[in-house]
Amino acid sequence: MTKKPHPQPQDAALIPRFAGLPTFMRLPMQASPEGVDIALVGVPFDGGTTNRAGARHGPREIRNASAFMRKIHHVTGVAPYDRAVVADLGDAPVNPIDLMESLRLITGFFADLKAHGCIPVSAGGDHLISLPILRALAADGPVGMVHFDAHSDTNDRYFGDNLYTHGTPFRRAVEEGLLDPKRVVQIGIRGSIYDPSDLDFARANGFRVIFIEEFITRTAEDIIAEARAIVGTGRTYVSFDVDAIDPAQAPGTGTPEIGGFSSFEAMRMVRGLAGLNIIGADVVEVSPPFDVSNMTSLLGATLMFELLCVIAAGFGD
């Protein structure tokens, strides 16, 4: 039987990048996850934001910017659309005025992707979206995580007893048994804190926290070698908050922190994740209202493409 060709992005030499309906990487939009290996998904939710909202608009602008992505990775030679069936599966449902309902809806959406054998690569949305995604993907046991961020996101609560914000997802994920804390590495942490105890939870539970001050004394490859050793061969989630990158290169984010690593260092580190047992990934906190010339949206699209290539490399030609 002749193998059906995989869906391909629209050819920019035939249909200009500015034409047609925007989808991730200019791939076909597909309503059903049936037959999809890697699902590109938007999660337009920023109900967990505690200060500068706007990340709900991230998926739409990342879709627009992803028109700049081409078919083949220029360094690794990976052609992701030849190796795997990749499609834009639209946006997870959200309720912008009901946080708890949104968490339930997002979990249900990703549980369906998992049931169909899809590996999701998601565009946020604020960082709280990682929690409902992990509730779906790690429902059958805790996973490891490689986490790029300026913030640990392991605070307990905000504004009284609010347990669910973009500063708390990974504390909740550990408490709910979704993350194995001894298989979690956080890269790029920096910035002022609220209280001396802010990182106590992460440290006490075994997270490997790599501050930017340590990062700059080492190479990106050295950092990722350590991260690979920490997560090992087990199931691993990758979460990339764009505020990990210096705001000079990524201004469109809600909680910028001066002194991050560069976009090029970010790409090198993501490429170093090839071969890990990645069950899903996200790129979060792109906030177009604070962006300049769409450069952060383009960064988000580029990181999604890098992650896509890393995951697709595990599929056959």
From TrEMBL:
Q: Write down the required cofactor(s).
A: Mn(2+)
Q: Which InterPro entries match?
A: Agmatinase-rel, Ureohydrolase, Ureohydrolase_dom_sf, Ureohydrolase_Mn_BS
Give the signal peptide range: none
Print the keywords alphabetically. Hydrolase, Manganese, Metal-binding
GO terms for MF:
agmatinase activity; metal ion binding
One Pfam short name: Arginase
Annotated GO biological processes are: putrescine biosynthetic process from arginine, via agmatine
- Where along the chain is Mn(2+) bound? H127, D149, H151, D153, D241, D243
The entry's free-text remark on the cofactor is: Binds 2 manganese ions per subunit.
PANTHER family found in the cross-reference section: ARGINASE/AGMATINASE, GUANIDINO ACID HYDROLASE, MITOCHONDRIAL
User: Of which family is this protein a member?
Assistant: Belongs to the arginase family. Agmatinase subfamily.
| NCBIfam families xrefs | agmatinase
What is this protein's name? Agmatinase
